[in-house]
Amino acid sequence: MFGAITTNFLYNLVRCAVGFFGITCYSSANFFCLVAVIGLLPSGKTFLGLMPLFGYNVLLNTLAAIAAAYYSLVIPAKVKGVNVAENI
Hints:
Elements (H helix, E strand, L loop, with lengths): L8 H17 L3 H12 L15 H25 L3 H4 L1
């Protein structure tokens, strides 16, 4: 199971930074959506040779985007006591 998702040091740093900023500002969904789409493109699978974005990383980034969207849209709406549509 280990090694199923390819990664490198720079990619780990980016994930840590996005996680830190996502906790502080609740808005990292756009980043993960962009990275997931780039991973689907043939020319962007390694992001200019810097980070691996192919294979299971696309699925991982898609799941992270869904989770980030949930925590940036649904949770604040529940805290405010309004509909999610009003929070967008």
